[in-house]
Write a structure and sequence with these properties.
heterodimer; A: 246 residues; alpha+beta; two-stranded antiparallel ribbon; two-stranded antiparallel sheet; 6 strands; 12% strand; globular; B: 469 residues; mainly alpha; 18 helices
Chain lengths: 246, 469
């Protein structure tokens, strides 16, 4: 029996190590974990509504759910409602899908669960988005004038360019390997501030993917504590019954 | 009609009520037969938790399923959104949904371990063949249930997974294209498919599943449970007390009811840890791609079924046109060895050779894809025949020759490797490994009548081995 369990463990280990070595694409930067950080989430929500929502919907997310990250109905109404006047509505973009298709070559995807869907072997969906939003560069060969390292030939232009400024990607002439960035025009933010802002935005997207996630984890702790207590009682009860079985 | 029993007029209300019921329905009789006087061997170990746990997961799936159906919309335009509605706007919807999605994987974990227990302790051997056969039918139902349930969230993996699997049926000669059309209800997976899968998932298959579970338990209680020693505690020569109860058995209730509660508490800790802290389980329980709504115009680069189907999926992918030559060699070799070594009349020998020839001709003329489907289906169907394939003198692995243990270990590792390869994108090395793995899987079962007789078994004790707690 022990041998069987040992071989089971060994094969699982083998599987895991093979998995780690079969990656592709650029490495994703680790997104800061701010899914519990209310000011960051609020800032992220603001950035989301201002920059993303013009083209992308979050059709399964209601505005008033933002109360979970510490906003009031009035605050939501005053600062974040651009496309509707009811806080019970879902976040729908104003853009006409047909027009969007014409402009960008594809419909901008819904962003409600984008952070959940983009996870992969390189990291979490948040890592991907954090990398993606920070690797736009000027490329005149593209229709929008922009390209992206994490998503080559992406249809989306760099909507945060005013914040980050314009950059050029430097590639090795022979190997076409990415070597570094060259700032063409400065943005309104420093590099650190920009990373901070994108971190907030990504945290918001991550939270929006599953607004119940923080509640879920908190409840989970109590459930597990209860179950450990229950297990102790079940164990003693079992022992009490079985002590007479010879 | 049974004799009408009277209780004393001074009896309590409860006793009178029970007597009233017992005169009309075998309540007390069933309670005794299946719980308080159902004697189970006292030497059950860790592996024996998984039967009751499978029942628990079934109940979890049914109850959470009932609540999900209250909010889910089986409509291609609304399904994805209704799942997100459950996750966001339905009070506690996220918990119900995660319990159901985690429950699906938990069901397979528990059932695989339950089957493995049966395998190593010979629980399928006479007189428990039907217990095993009903169990295999349950496994088959469970696969259908899981497959159809997975379409319902209507994400990319749901959609393309269903597309790939339903397309497999079209590889069957003559009836294939019409059969897959019948299953889909359309030329591609679409709204019609979603509706019929929903119907099967919530009504048809669960009804069959429940019936089979009842049959499984009735059959088990008829013949009594096996145990890690494979000793019959209720046999004619087994030691019994003055009342005729087996000395090596204990009544299921209270002994195994409290024991199973302990198992339940352990299971719930693992289950809750996943539900509350890792419901996606690294993309294995909820695949990342499935958070993208189904798009019939956009095929994902890599389509993999959920982890519990991957061993069988690997075997499907292993059957390439190259592999067909290996399979043909196996058929020819098998027929030759059978004719040479097994005593049978000349006419039977000719029949075997003729049948092998026909099979080889079919294998040469029909596309490998079809044989892949046959192999995948066969990998499950072959389990049904296990009781008649195993010819070892003893039931339990404990008293089998040592090398049997290693063989079982290799079988387990092989199964896990096949499962792993099924998750991965196709690769030349992976293909070879899965081909060897497929041959080993089938060899393990088909050659069992031969290898299970080999080697020196150890003496089986008269009584079960039991150390008091």
């Amino acid at each position: 029996m022990k041998k069987i369990i040992l071989s089971l463990l060994l094969s699982v280990g083998l599987v895991a190590s093979v998995q780690a070595s079969s990656e592709g694409g650029i490495a994703w930067d680790k997104a800061p974990n701010k899914v519990n950080d209310l000011p960051a989430l609020q800032n992220g929500a603001k950035l989301f509504v201002n920059y993303c929502l013009s083209c992308h919907s979050a059709a399964f997310m209601r505005y008033n759910r933002l109360k979970d990250i510490g906003l009031t109905d009035q605050q939501i109404k005053d600062n974040l409602l651009f496309t509707t006047d009811k806080v019970g509505e879902t976040m729908k973009a104003n853009i006409d899908p047909r027009q969007a298709k014409e402009w960008f070559g594809a419909n901008p995807p819904d962003l409600t669960v984008i952070a959940r869907s983009r996870a992969g072997h390189n990291g979490t969906g948040a890592d991907y988005l954090y990398t993606y939003m920070r690797t736009f560069y000027r490329d005149d060969t593209k229709a929008t004038g922009w390209n992206n390292l994490a998503f080559p030939s992406v249809g989306m232009p760099h909507v945060l360019w005013e914040l980050q400024g314009e950059r050029r990607a430097v590639f090795d002439e022979k190997t076409h390997e990415f070597k570094g960035w060259e700032q063409i025009k400065p943005g309104s933010m420093t590099a650190e501030q920009y990373d901070q802002a994108v971190g907030d935005l990504v945290a918001y997207l991550q939270w929006m993917g599953e607004p119940a996630q923080n509640t879920r984890k908190t409840i989970g702790i109590f459930v597990l504590l209860f179950l450990f207590g229950f297990m102790y009682i079940a164990w003693r009860l079992n022992a009490a019954y079985w002590k007479d079985v010879k | 009609m049974a004799e009408f029993k009277e209780v004393s007029p001074n009896a309590s209300v409860g006793e009178k009520l029970l007597n009233w019921v017992d005169n009309r329905f075998p309540a007390s009789k069933m309670y005794k037969e299946h719980l308080s006087e159902y004697y189970a061997p006292k030497n059950f170990n860790f592996w024996y938790f998984f039967g009751s746990l499978a029942l628990l997961v079934l109940v979890i799936q049914i109850v959470t399923g009932i609540f999900l159906v209250m909010h889910y919309k089986p409509d291609a335009a609304l399904a994805f959104g209704s799942v997100e509605y459950i996750m966001r706007d339905v009070p506690w919807g996220w918990l119900i949904r995660y319990m159901h999605s985690t429950g699906a994987s938990a069901f397979f974990i528990v059932v695989y371990l339950h089957m493995y227990r049966g395998l190593i302790y010979g629980s399928y051997r006479k007189p428990r063949e039907l217990v095993w056969v009903f169990g295999c039918a349950i496994f088959l139902c469970l696969m259908a249930e899981a497959f159809m349930g997975y379409l319902l969230p209507w994400g990319q993996m749901s959609y393309w997974g269903a597309q790939v699997i339903v397309n497999l049926f079209s590889a069957i000669p003559f009836i294939g294209p019409d059969l897959s059309l019948l299953i889909r209800g359309d030329y591609v997976v679409g709204d019609a498919t979603l509706n019929r899968f929903f119907s099967f998932h919530v009504i048809a298959v669960p009804l069959v599943l429940l019936g089979l579970v009842v049959a499984h338990i009735i059959a088990l209680h008829e013949v009594g449970s096996n145990n890690p020693d494979g000793v019959e505690i209720k046999g004619p020569n087994a030691p019994k007390d003055a009342n005729g109860h087996p000395l090596d058995g204990v009544p299921f209730h209270p002994y195994y009811s409290v024991h199973d509660i302990l198992g339940v508490s352990g299971f719930l800790i693992v289950f809750s840890a996943i539900v509350f802290f890792a419901p996606e389980f690294g993309g294995y329980f909820l695949e990342y791609n499935n958070f993208i709504p189904a798009d019939p115009l956009k095929t994902p680069p890599h389509i993999a079924p959920v982890w519990y189907f991957t061993p069988f999926y690997s075997m499907l992918r292993a059957i390439t046109s190259e592999m067909m030559y290996a399979l043909i060699a196996c058929v020819v070799g098998g027929a030759f060895l059978g004719v040479k070594n097994i005593k049978m009349p000349a006419i039977a020998k000719n029949a075997v050779i003729g049948a092998a020839l026909v099979v080889v001709l079919l294998m040469l003329s029909i596309d490998a894809k079809f044989w892949g489907v046959v192999v995948m289906g066969g990998a499950v169907i072959i389990l049904f025949f296990l009781p008649w394939l195993d010819k070892c003198e003893v039931k339990s692995i404990r008293y089998r020759p040592d090398w049997h243990k290693y063989l079982y270990a290799v079988f387990v590792v092989n199964f896990i490797v096949l499962a792993y390869l099924g998750v991965q994108p196709p690769s030349p090395v992976g293909e070879r490994v899965s081909q060897v793995g497929t041959l080993f899987y089938f060899g393990f079962f088909l050659l069992m009548p031969w290898w299970s007789r080999l080697g020196q078994t150890k003496p089986v004790p008269d009584r079960v081995t039991f150390t008091p707690h």
